[in-house]
Design brief:
By secondary structure, the protein is mostly beta strands. It has one helix and 31 strands. Strands 22, 23, 24, 25, 26, 27, 28, 29, 30 and 31 form a ten-stranded antiparallel sheet that branches.
């Protein structure tokens, strides 16, 4: 750091100089990557002054996790992103150990409020402390409040952790008050989401515990979000150290879950009705949502996995990426996701095939590629097929496979042969099959990124594949006769 530079100005100088050295074409087409260095959780996803803003956990100086800054990008269409200078750096007593995850809220005076977790390093006689801080600015430059942290240990009832206390999502209530939901770990109920309120965003008070793991769904609940959708209240969170459930619905490790239920605005009580995984893939965590001007609830997540990233190759001056943004809805009591409709602006070289008859191994003319939007509609009532395999990102040595046991209603996503040499999880299995004789598989590929939307988004599987770009092939194999429709769009 040069003399008289602040940590933030040093980070901005470094990212500007390093960014200029990254060649064109060194990034995915539409999955946001960090300007330089390391990226993890999405932060501050908001719509501000006519554009979407997305901040992210950021270590500009290397491609591994380090002292957390906030990176920053903006977009008009959620697909093409413009980088802005780093927004936050650890430079005060309240956040000397890092500026951890948080959120953003446009204010009535036209400014933008950031609320984030400030980390105070461990000291004599105490562990690292986490508390909530505020910075306010114009969408590029932000000033931290002198009174930070605005939510500290003194506001927590007995039993809640001051060490695992992070990731505030700030909201504005119908009553005009400020609210935030924040992740915590209770000494007996383990992962928990707390609700706090404020008149001005500066002075806060504890309101309630919205929900907790109670030993069933992870040790610590991170990165909460809380919103109304299609007449139901949705609480999103990302549990750490989950145990797999015997029915296979939840996998072990770090996951993402949606708690659907009812919320009483007077008592501030949330009543859980159901719980489901948000994304059952191998690489998805810490999602955050924004309400778009047209009323859509749009979600984006970190397309990585804490359990596997340490051994991942570092081929670029950046590491980490966000998922494709997704539109959320509730259908038949289930949270469903679809790629944002803006992706249709990238469609090129369309191919549509109807009534394709499969029997054995098949490759179809024009159905290939690594930057594409491919939808396969299976008509399972029109043949004898019980099992389908679709291989993609395929060459002589590599492929990733989707296996559908149609008669049993099971789907397996398997990247074992994608080219990876790492001993990490490669397979996910879910209960998903035809409905009324029809099953849809929509696969979005962007180089190393693969996102599968099953049955119009009832299930989503996100995965990175360590496959050379020359692996472009797609093939199908059945154990009997099957009719399908295929719609393919190259993305560019």
């Amino acid at each position: 750091m040069m003399k008289n530079q602040t940590p933030l100005s040093a980070a901005r100088d470094f990212e500007r100089q390093t960014f200029a050295q990254i060649p064109d074409g060194d990034r995915p087409l539409f999955h946001l990557t960090p300007m330089v260095g390391w990226m993890n959780d999405p932060n501050g996803f908001c719509y501000y002054k006519g554009e979407y803003h997305l901040f992210y956990q950021y270590h500009p100086y290397s491609t591994i996790w380090g002292p957390m800054h906030w990176g920053h990008a903006k977009s008009r269409d959620l697909l093409h992103w413009t980088y802005l200078p780093a927004a936050l750096a650890p430079d005060t007593d309240a956040d000397a150990g890092g500026c951890f995850s948080g959120s953003a809220l446009p204010l009535d005076d036209g400014s933008l409020m950031l609320m984030y977790t400030g980390v105070q390093p461990a000291g004599t006689g105490h562990k690292e402390l986490q508390a909530q801080c505020v910075a306010i600015g114009d969408g590029v430059d932000f000033t931290k409040l002198a009174e930070n942290p605005v939510i500290g240990a003194a506001l927590l009832p007995k039993g809640y952790s001051t060490h695992d206390f992070r990731d505030p999502k700030i909201l504005r209530g119908k009553d005009g008050r400020f609210y935030c939901v924040v992740g915590n770990r209770h000494e007996t109920r383990q992962g928990a989401i707390l609700l706090l309120e404020s008149e001005d965003g500066r002075g806060w008070r504890f309101v309630s515990e919205l929900d907790a793991s109670r030993g069933e769904l992870g040790r610590m609940w991170e990165c909460p979000d809380f919103f109304e959708l299609d007449g139901q209240q949705v609480l999103l969170t990302s549990p750490q150290e989950m145990q797999a459930t015997p029915d296979g619905v939840f996998h072990a490790g770090y996951g993402t879950i949606a708690l659907l239920g009812d919320y009483d605005e007077e008592s501030h009580r949330f009543t859980r009705r159901s719980v489901q995984p948000v994304d059952v893939g191998l690489d998805f965590y810490a999602p955050q949502t924004v309400l778009a001007p047209d009323g859509r609830r749009i979600m984006i997540g970190w397309m990585e996995n804490w359990e596997t990233l340490n051994g991942a190759p570092r081929r670029h001056r950046w590491y980490g990426r966000m998922s494709l943004p997704r539109e959320l809805s509730i259908r038949e009591g289930r949270l469903c996701q679809q790629p944002v409709r803006e992706i249709e602006t990238l469609w090129q070289d369309d191919v549509r095939l109807t009534g394709v008859r499969l029997a054995g191994k098949t490759e179809l003319d024009g159905i290939c590629g690594r930057k594409l939007d491919l939808t396969v509609t299976l008509h399972t009532g029109e043949g004898t097929c019980r099992r389908l395999e679709m291989r993609f990102a395929k060459n002589e040595r590599c492929f990733t496979v989707i296996r559908c046991a149609l008669s049993r209603g099971e789907l397996v996503f398997d990247r074992t042969n994608c080219g990876s040499t790492r001993d990490i999880p490669h397979v996910r299995s879910i209960k998903a099959g035809p409905k009324d004789g029809v099953m849809t598989l929509r696969l979005i590929l962007d180089g190393e990124s693969a996102e599968l939307f099953v049955n119009d988004g009832e299930h989503v599987i996100s995965s990175l594949i360590d496959t050379p770009m020359d692996a472009q092939g797609i093939s199908f194999c059945t154990d009997g006769e099957l009719t399908m429709d295929v719609e393919k769009h190259i993305l560019g």
